Amino acid sequence: MAALITAVLALSACGQPEFTYVRDKGGTTYFKVPASFTQLDAYPIELYLSGDHPGSQAALLRAQRVWSTAFDQSSDPSVNHLLGSAEPFVYATVHQLTEDQRDGVSLDRLRDFILPVTDEVRAAYLQQALQTGRPPMFSGFEPLSDEVLTLDGGARGVHVRFNYRIGADIQTFDHTAILDERGATVSVMLIGCQANCYRTRSGEFDRIASSFKLLRLPG
Description:
By secondary structure, the chain is α+β, with helices and mostly antiparallel strands. The protein has helices at residues 2-15, 43-50, 57-65, 99-102, 107-111, 119-132, 195-210; strands spanning 19-23, 29-34, 38-40, 66-72, 89-96, 138-150, 156-166, 169-179, 185-194, 213-214. The longest helix is centred in the last third of the chain and has 16 residues, at 195-210. The termini are far apart.
């Protein structure tokens, strides 16, 4: 009986996937997250980041060019954890660029693709916040690391880590952005959680971020 129970438990353990494997709808970008993360509908994040009204033509066009998804390890998962969570939150997106956008993609543009990171864009963000008369949501920027990625086939990108004070908490963000070899798509992954969470779980950040890759399709 003891041997039978052991065998059943072993089979049950084998049946539990360790990771959730993800590809974008075009099948060109790949990553994996631990199976303990809950997948969320990222559409509210797209509306927040773009500022588009959900019924607008801009939102419709964006939906045609942008794929995105999100994963939250919180016991109470929510897209609101993108900018504030005690547990790791993962947001990934792939943008099909227009002809005009292709001409303006630099390494600094990749750094600033979601949040203000470079000196120029952070200064512009602060100036815009001052003009509204409201305190900026993001303050106390602290750079942690900045790596330029040179990838196979001519693709290139950046991998940066930084802190921001948001409300009463300090959030650590891990941002990877890759421009494909044709200059046609930008693939981005943003991982975040509170700074003390990152310090104790940086290895988990590393494993998720290192899994974020472009795939070579036949033809």
